[in-house]
Amino acid sequence: MNNFGYHRPASVADAVKALGGSGDARIVAGGQTLLPTLRARLATPSDLVDLRAIAELKGIKAEGDGITIGAMTPHAEVAASDVVKGAIPALAYLADHIGDRQVRTLGTIGGSLANNDPAACYPSAVLALGATIRTSKREIKADDFFQGLFTTALEDGEIITAVHFPKPEKAAYEKFVQPASRFALVGVFVAKAREGVRVAVTGAGQEGVFRARELEQALSANFSPDAAKGVKVAAGNLISDLHGTAEYRAHLIPVLTARAVAAAK
């Protein structure tokens, strides 16, 4: 049996204090990754800091040039939000296609981003939309946040508090689902903004989510499905596993990108 201290702070300040006062504390957000890890004895933290009672970490609002989503907002709330549907319908669609109903009810955007699973859906939206991750210490641009498999720019004791998404001109998300896990075998988020087109890919990269620069260049010149289909993606830095080879994933990326461009709104 795991022995650990349990903390349920009521504010971000109290959560930071609890993390700082523990030897090897772990944050509990939705618990969709951490709890199975604990059951399998793959993690033995000294303390668990449960964020579910912190009201300031929840909610969705229009703000400035886009929308801001609290870190403890569940996927199901993002999917159902009229604010999200009105500003970035692709983000609501993405949230509505994460895992199953239980995962969408319990899982949170902050937990997904902090975990940075290489096949998670949210990192592709954050990267493609050029979002800003707000924490208990600072603001981090999406391009600086994701740093490799299950690795982010977060420092010890730093907590994600919210994510701000600028509103794009058009955006869409398409994924090829691994049917057992419901994770993305390959997922592609395309966002067209005044500054150009950003394409982020999840489920395929050896280092996790990444921007597909060759597709961005092609779509910035010609935002059409045919432009995406004409791009050949190299397989060298992509994942090969029992679900699909690197070459198969390389083939899927422009196919899914073309579908996303056709669906973008």
UniProtKB/TrEMBL annotation:
Pfam families associated with the record: FAD_binding_5
Domain FAD-binding PCMH-type: 1-170
InterPro entries: CO_DH_flav_C, CO_DH_flav_C_dom_sf, Diverse_Substr_Oxidored, FAD-bd_PCMH, FAD-bd_PCMH-like_sf, FAD-bd_PCMH_sub1, FAD-bd_PCMH_sub2, Mopterin_DH_FAD-bd
Keyword presence, Flavoprotein: yes
Listed GO MF terms: FAD binding; oxidoreductase activity
Transmembrane segments: none
Keywords recorded for this protein, A-Z: FAD, Flavoprotein, Oxidoreductase
Matching Gene3D superfamilies: 3.30.465.10, CO dehydrogenase flavoprotein, C-terminal domain, Uridine Diphospho-n-acetylenolpyruvylglucosamine Reductase, domain 2
PANTHER family per record: XANTHINE DEHYDROGENASE SUBUNIT C-RELATED
Protein name: Carbon-monoxide dehydrogenase medium subunit
Naturally occurring in which organism (per UniProt): Dongia mobilis
Lineage: Bacteria, Pseudomonadati, Pseudomonadota, Alphaproteobacteria, Rhodospirillales
